[in-house]
Amino acid sequence: MSTALVQIPVGVVVSRRTAESRWIDFTWQPSAILFGEAEAAPWTKLSDDGQTTTYYAGGTMLELFRGEAASYRDNLAGDNSLWVILRPSEGEFPYELARVTADPTEAESYAGAGDHVIEILPMPDALRDLVAAFVAEHYVDQPFVKRKRNRADPEALAPHRPKDANDKRLQ
Questions:
Q1: Would 146 be classed as within a structural domain?
Q2: How do residues 159-170 score in pLDDT, each as one tens digit?
Q3: Distance, CA of 123 to CA of 65 (rounded, Å)
Q4: Number of domains in the chain
Q5: Residue 24: how many CA atoms within 13 Å on its side-chain side?
Q6: Are 62 and 83 in contact (CB under 8 A)?
Q7: By residue range, what is the domain housing residue 34?
Q8: CB atoms inside a 10 Å sphere around CB 18
Q9: CA-to-CA distance for 113 and 124, rounded, in angstroms?
Q10: Can you give the pTM of this predicted structure?
């Protein structure tokens, strides 16, 4: 069960292109975000022009969390993007839809996993309006507070002799 305050249904379109490589046959790349739920089954072929085949990869929820409102605000102030994460799978298709997020730091956390496909796509206008409304309601500005440093104790850095129980000079 998710702890997200808002869940927005989205769908993802993925393009499979013929690769110009000796080592792989195809490249897979998310190419569009659809607002709402589609009635098509995951991995339904949408088009094929010989070089590129597009599929409806499936639907998921764009989840918005109160604690990430600052990241969403920064995203809206910048490029208004969504990040689509595909993870490797062992089925007929080499990837499955893992997540769609509006939080760039969450997307970055998937980058270290290695085999995930992460693509930045433009946020549809209807989604941007919903995310902006969420930020307006839940964003709380946290002012920067500079921490005061403790003054250094010069005696703490002075060389000390180790205490020896048999040393008469230290008793």
A1: no
A2: 766 666 666 655
A3: 17
A4: 1
A5: 8
A6: no
A7: 6-138
A8: 13
A9: 27
A10: 0.78
